[in-house]
Amino acid sequence: MAVMRFNPGVDPECILRINALSDELFRFSITKAGQDTGSGLNRYGFLKEDWKYSGFRQKTSGKQTFLKTNKALFSLRGSKEPVFALKDSNERKLCGGKIKILHDEGIYEVSLGLDKNEKFFGLGDQCRDRIEHRNSIADMNVVSAASYIPIPFLMSNRGYGILVNTTYRHVWDIGYKNRNTLRIVIPGGNLDLYFFYGPGLKDLLGAYTQLTGRPALPPKWSFGPWFICRTQANDFEVASNALSFRDRKIPCDVLSLEPGWMERDYDYSTEKKWNSKDFPIPSWSPNGPYNLINAIKRMGFKMGLWLCQEYDLSYEAERRIGGIITSQSKRIEQFLGHTFEKDVHFIEPVTADRFTKPEEAWFDHLKKFVDQGISFFKQDGAMQVCEHPGRIWGNGMTDAEMHNLHPLLYSQQMYEGFRQYTGKRPCCFTALGWAGVQRYTGTWTGDTGGGPKTLVACLNLAMSGHSTVTCDMEVTTKEGIHYGFFLPWAQVNSWTYFRHPWLLGDELQPLFRDYANLRSRLIPYIYTYANVAHTTGIPIVRPIVLEYPDDPKTTSIITQWFFGKELLVSSFSQEVYLPEGKWLDYWNGKIYAGPQKIKYKPPENRGGGLFLRSNSILPLGPLVQYVGQKTEEGFSLKIFIEPGKEAAFEIYDDDGISFDYMRGKYSLHKITAAYPKGGISLTAPKAVKIDKIEIWTNEKPQKVLLNGKVINGEWLPEVSKFLSH
Question: What pLDDT shows up at residue 7?
Answer without folding.
Answer: 54
